[in-house]
Specification:
16% strand, single chain, 6 helices, two-stranded parallel sheet, 252 residues
Length: 252
């Protein structure tokens, strides 16, 4: 009797996991997308804390509009994004292991999901995506570690600079990771960091090919030659190409 109950409970849990995984991979873009953003003082500095105090949802309107415009251009009908600033968190998300094996990555993924579950905050229902924004003072940390986001669970850990001068680049990183949570893949060479041709180019049919005027968002850089590239200055210097639109489900 107890064995049957345990088996039934396990089957129910597996069913819930399967349904949630299916939902994560089959987003209904006709419904509003609520993005919950939790700022974190990742380096513990007073300067970073002061910057976090300046954050507001109005800072995110450009990113919202950018996503809405791109989604509508592919879908032919509106999709609305709403960015909500959640409470500031004190606990950092678990760090992504460097050069780890598959078991280390799985363990980190489980830890990250448990962390996200612990920090759950309702915004008139479950958010579509939750991003944890780890801010660092650029006067003390010059290079940020790679951000990451999980499609299963729709959560992300995003490393950003606590500086108004870096706000435009911060938006690029944030939207890049947000699309990862909807299934978009990176479109740059992992070894060199250079955009992959043609999927990592904004205008792969341009003649002459170089220099490109904009970056493909998931490639992150504007190609200036076969071996060189530069960072875009704002979201307006990026595009979301058809390959990315297919991955997230905007284009069939």
């Amino acid at each position: 009797m107890w064995k049957k109950i345990r088996v039934l409970c396990l089957l129910i849990i597996l069913l819930i996991v399967a349904v949630n995984a299916w939902k994560d991979k089959n987003q209904d873009w006709s419904k509003p997308i609520f993005v919950l953003l939790h700022p974190i003082n990742a380096d513990g500095l007073p300067s970073t804390q002061a910057y976090i105090q300046t954050l507001s949802e109005s800072n995110m309107r450009e990113a919202q509009q950018y996503l809405q415009n791109n989604a509508q251009s592919y879908r032919g009908q509106p999709t609305y994004f709403y960015f909500k600033l959640g409470c500031e968190l004190k606990a950092l998300p678990p760090k992504v292991p460097n050069e780890a094996g598959i078991l280390d990555v799985i363990l980190w993924s489980l830890k990250f999901r448990f962390y996200a579950w612990q920090q759950y905050e309702s915004i008139d229902g479950a958010p579509s995506v939750t991003l944890f924004l780890n801010y660092y003072d650029p006067q003390h940390i010059k290079i940020l570690k790679h951000s990451t986001a999980l499609e299963n669970g729709r959560i992300g850990s995003v490393n950003l600079f606590a500086s108004a001068k870096q706000s435009e680049q911060n938006k690029i990183v944030l939207v890049h990771e947000l699309l990862h949570a909807f299934g978009a893949t990176d479109k740059y060479d992992l070894a060199t960091g250079q955009p992959q041709f043609p999927i990592g180019y904004a205008y792969p049919n341009q003649q002459p090919l170089f220099p490109q005027a904009k970056a493909e968002l998931m490639a992150g850089y504007i190609p200036t030659s076969k071996t060189t590239s530069k960072m875009p200055e704002s979201l307006q210097q990026t595009v979301i190409n058809e390959a990315t639109a297919l991955e997230v489900g905007w284009k069939k």
